[in-house]
Write a structure and sequence with these properties.
The complex is a heterodimer of chains A (424) and B (132). Chain A has 424 residues and is of the alpha/beta class. Chain A has 15 helices and 15 strands. Chain A has a seven-stranded mixed β-sheet with strand order 2-8-7-6-5-3-4, with helices on both faces. Chain A has a four-stranded antiparallel β-sheet with strand order 11-12-15-14, with helices on one face. In chain A, strands 1-13 form a two-stranded parallel ribbon. Chain B has five helices and three strands, in the order H-E-E-E-H-H-H-H. Chain B has a three-stranded antiparallel β-sheet with strand order 1-2-3, covered by helices on one side. The relative contact order of chain B is 0.20. Classes of the chains: A alpha/beta (424), B alpha+beta (132). Chains A and B meet through helix 13 and helix 15 of A and loops of B.
Amino acid sequence: MTDTAAHTAGNPTATSFDASLVRADFPILSTVNSHGKPLVYLDSANTSLKPLAVIEAVNGYNREYSANIHRGIYEISERATAEYERARASVARLVNAADPHDIIFVRNATEAINLVAYSWGRRNIGRGDTIVLTEMEHHANLVPWQLLVQEKDGDLEFIPITDDGHLRLDVYEALLHLRPKLVAFTHVSNMLGTINPVRELTRMAHEAGALVLVDGAQAVPHVPVDVAEIGADFYVFSGHKMLAPTGSGALWARRELLEAMPPFMAGGDMIREVHLRRSEWNDVPWKFEAGTPDIAAQIGFGAAAEYLMALGMDRVQAHEKELAKYAIETLRREIPRIEIYGPEADQRGGVVAFNVPGIHPHDVAQILDRAGVCLRAGHHCTMPLHERYDLAASARASFNVYTVPEDIDALAAGLREVVRIFER
Amino acid sequence: MDDLYRDYILEHYRKPHNFGVLEEPTASYEGANPLCGDRITMMLGIKDGMISEVAFTGRGCAISQASASLLTDEIKGKAIEDVEKLTPDDLLELIGVEISPARLKCALLSLDTVAHALAENAAKSENQAEDS
């Protein structure tokens, strides 16, 4: 691997790292927009920027060994297969999966949830069965379950949230008396930043006899994740939010479940034997990986996992917690009337959603865009959560390893300009 | 940045013209832009093939609300057939500031909502004609 800031950003036992060194690993951060402004990227919860190590891993595949995997009896195909499987091992190590083969490569967390809903769900959810979700789910962890219970005549129940963005565990406990078949919840909220008590939620579900799916799309890039310790049955995440290319993602699941589940998609590579009227499935994980996958993206996924492990996920979390604290303090000071949603900084990941009363978030984002500040405006695929707070939309700043306090200063300066324009 | 947030746009946003409700509209339609949560309800009073009264309510970004304000001024007192002929380009010309592709839906929601209200009204008139 090339010498990156992940390796040189200081003492690996330190509690934080030098983000300015990390920034040197991200070529896009040295670009300017059409107004000549440097990039202030505060939309990492949407998708992350990519470090050179990931870009080079992708390019390396395309330039040097762009053959298919598991198929060719020649050197570059064998190399592609080896790198693809090495990437799986890296991703497995990042989330402490016991066996790399418990990791299914998919396009993103959305595909992983759909895989579970179709493959496990259609076998195990029947008439009158209940699935418990939460009010803070991304649409990806809501709509697939809506489709499933509509088809199977089952029911959805929702754990409500408190005004400061925490799950109501007392209501959860009551919902578990309905003996749900599955409880599915997000590890970290993509709007509120709430870090949910996943171990406790999982333990309670298991005691009630339910299986557990955790949506880790906003967790794996930002906090240490240990699937063995959490003890859930399914854990899903996207590569592109954790410094990897779009088109990469993973489903981790308990081996017995994966063995028992029927294939989700059918085609090449997922079979052992095919006859005209019947086929036998390949072993897990390849049983779930029909057709030629996005090989380059998954190899980049492995490189991203290595990059994050070199930085240290404890230090990544500490870095982003500091940023959230700084952002909340700065925005409250600079824009006194700002409304910020979610828990206090010490209980959240690097996500800050807000509104400036009287100014629509789209107008906020548009004016900030001219200053080079990239911000999400809208409902962030959480319409029910916005309804919960009676909001049409919100603006959201979200952070990653390359985010520095100066980015937040630029946001605050941009917001002052927004207020100036709207109040002139 | 002042290309988009010109004073007259913000003026229409802060004090939109024709903002309110018609007690008995001939045609009414609620349009929404699901991506950003913009909402506009257009109410039309139609008399002798003319838009004699118009009002709207809604919430959303400055562009969507200013656009509705400008459009309602434009169509008041006009013949339905002329309003039906209004194109997105006509409305963009009326707004008079450069709209980026990501904001087109905000800018055009008002016209889309008027078109739906008129289409529903046309369908209603047709049914009434058949009934009589």
